[in-house]
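Notes from the 1:1 (GR / supervisor)

We went over the backlog. Supervisor wanted to see one worked example end to end before approving the batch request, so GR pasted a single chain during the call. The sequence is below; no edits were made to it. Supervisor asked that the structure be written out right there so they could see what the output format looks like.
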Amino acid sequence: MDYDSGAKKFDINDAPILKTYKEATGEDPVSVEFPYDSIDKYLKDKLDLMVNRMTGKKKFDNLVLIDGDEGYGKSNLEAYIGAYVSSKTGRALTLANVFFDLDRLLEFAMHTEEQIILWDEGALGGLANEWWNKNQKKFLKLLMVARKRRHFWVICIPKFFKLNEYLVIDRSIGLIHAYAKDELEIGRFAYFGKKRKEQLYHDWRKSKQRNYGKFSNFRGRFPEALPKVFDEVKYDRKKDIAIMSMDKEEEKKTPSTIKKEFAMKIIEKWMEKGVKMTQKEQADYFEVDERTIRNYTREINNRKQESGTSINNNGVKGENI
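Structure output shown during the call:
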């Protein structure tokens, strides 16, 4: 089913009316058979535990995070996990379960129960970071109110440390890092359970180093699963529609807004790299006054603090950062 990118934005505060899978997606609820004869033993044990959490007496939901650099197989790993859970639970898994648009995801999650929800935000590549900063609060609110829906969530993101601490430590049950051995052999993963991902997160907060190898519970391999689970042409078309929708939002911006966002993006990079530049020099570079630079810096740090990070840009007139 193709989605109209101009659809009305979903308000999470609206009273949700439960719908069947067919009513919510227009697709028949078809589960999939796991397309492989075997799966990494340790990963299987973790996924079986999650399935038991969903189907046991208390019926918890599960949130799995997948991070990794672009092109290292996050989407394949997501499809791999989704297919295994679908085969074990009988829950539907079609392309309608894959989301690139947050409002579509919100609407589906709030109006259904016991679904597999794959949010492939990482597939948006370089567009993802800025988009995620704008939408993280909305997603966190959804997770807080939708727990009783007993969904199985798999969220692909470029970097785990871009997420709110609540999401990484408290709300997710596991983090899986997709990587390439020696930067060449893709299809590798490292798994982090509740305790290890908390240690990884706090270590990053202190050192700003992503020490995946130091804290992982175990490592393994995964195949190129996406073509065996979904129609790749339709998958790519759905992703392209989401990216074009983001471009349309950009077209609505005024020149002053575009200039501000450009300046903030450059300043943020300077701050991250420790570039020694006074705020007066920054103001001259962007042809604005120093007060505007201070406002930009404040906005950047407010955004970083919401995601659990902060950067220094305390330079004032005549003083280096």
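Supervisor's comment: Confidence is low (pLDDT under 50) at residues 1-7, 314-321.
Batch request approved.
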